[in-house]
Prior knowledge:
46% of the residues lie in helices and 0% in strands. The chain contains five helices and no strands. The longest helix has 23 residues, at 52-74. It is elongated and about 90 Å long.
Amino acid sequence: MEQSAQQAQQLDHLASAPPPGHSPFAAFGMPGLSGPAPVTPPEPRPILELEGEEYEDEIDSLSDWVDDFLLPVYGAEVTTAAPWCLQWQEHDDVVAWLHALWLAYQQHKDPEAGLSGLFVWHRDFLTHAIAAIRAPGGPLSACMTSPERPAHRILPGPPPSARAEKTNTAERDTSGSGEPGEPTS
């Protein structure tokens, strides 16, 4: 009887479906035979690397998050110590900071981040990003410092490096008039 019970158990085991991802060929290094490969989401790209419609879609989604979540919860008062700009989308550095903050938020609110995921986001990302964006000498320092006086001004960036200047000068010298190989004056 006991032997019959064991044989019945073995038959049940052999007749059951294999567990997902199990392949009899996996031991031979043939992962393609184990069924469809798991679909991995595309890797996020920095927003400033996007172009055209892809950039527009991303900036729209980012704007929704900033306007509907970030500012109402973490916006604080606009002052000279914490300026803001209603046209923040025109400040490339602010867009890059906020996009990175938003990507980190999405990662840390995911259940896989665990119960402390949002704490880590607050501690490691939010505090630093907001401090950099809204610093008195930061990228928005020439913009609104009082809600009664809306202002927007993009500060000029640093001048080009000496290396870039040499490259531009060399390109102008080689693209001058005359035949190739002839010296220019």
